[in-house]
Design brief:
13 strands, 13% helix, elongated, mainly beta, 8-stranded antiparallel barrel
């Protein structure tokens, strides 16, 4: 072998050796290894607040509370010249993309999506789960304390009566709430009896009310429902099945 050929062979062997060794301080990464680890799970319940853009007002003061049973509550208060009364709603939430995205079903507005930003912030996404392109404030920051949002809201669901209690199984959250014997409790009972017309059959109702902490004298766990007014009672399934139109 000539000298030039020997030098070329030595050079190739050195390059091959360096490529094989690489940087020993870097462990090999297998295919499919994620670029970033999933965020730590949220400590629930947790409340997030902030002003979100509003089409017909200055902004909407928003309070969102996520509960560890998979439900949420949302309070919205329009600000500015076209400010209106606060409204509240409830529904269910689910985490996607390893906890990077939260989908809220309910609240009377269809599904809403939020992206996780660090440990203490959520950002409103569009209905496809993508980032908003407009340079507007879409961020909700974590509050120092939990707001259970016991504002008045609509509840629609099946009314279940027993010898000692009345429960409403709410469609939006899937939760059952004992109805307190106050406010429009008697009106709800009259509506159920009128709708059933003497026949025991599934009955549903649409009411306005508030969730409250369970009184110490009431056995069981969880919140209770105080009904302020009854909008409609009908025979049939709740949650859209058999619900009257109009």
């Amino acid at each position: 072998m000539t000298i030039p050929h020997v030098r070329r062979a030595i050079g190739l062997s050195v390059v091959a050796g360096l490529a094989a060794c690489g940087d020993s301080s870097r462990p090999p990464r297998s295919a499919g290894t994620p670029q970033a680890s999933a965020p730590a799970p949220l400590t629930l319940p947790a409340t997030f607040t902030g002003d979100l853009p509003c089409g017909g007002c200055e902004a909407t003061a928003t309070t969102l509370t996520l509960f560890d049973d998979g439900t949420f509550r949302l309070r919205s208060v329009p600000r500015g010249a076209n400010a209106g009364a606060a409204s509240a709603a409830l529904g269910t939430w689910r985490a996607l993309d390893g906890g990077r995205r939260y989908v809220l079903d309910g609240a009377g507005q269809g599904a809403r999506q939020f992206g996780r930003i660090g440990a203490d912030s959520l950002r409103l996404l569009d209905n496809t789960g993508a980032e908003m392109v407009a340079p507007l404030p879409y961020r909700l920051g974590r509050a120092a304390s939990v707001d259970t949002i016991r504002d008045r809201m609509r509840f629609e669901g099946a009314v279940l009566e027993s010898a000692d209690a009345v429960r409403l199984i709410d469609c939006a959250s899937g939760r059952g709430y004992p109805v307190l014997r106050e406010g429009a409790f008697d009106a709800l009972g009259r509506g159920v009896r009128q709708a059933q017309a003497g026949r025991a059959q599934p009955t549903s109702a649409l009411v306005l009310g508030r969730l409250r902490a369970r009184p110490p004298e009431l056995p069981g766990k969880g919140e209770v429902l105080a009904v302020d007014s009854v909008e409609r009672v009908w025979v049939g399934g709740a949650c859209g099945a058999g619900r009257p139109r109009g």
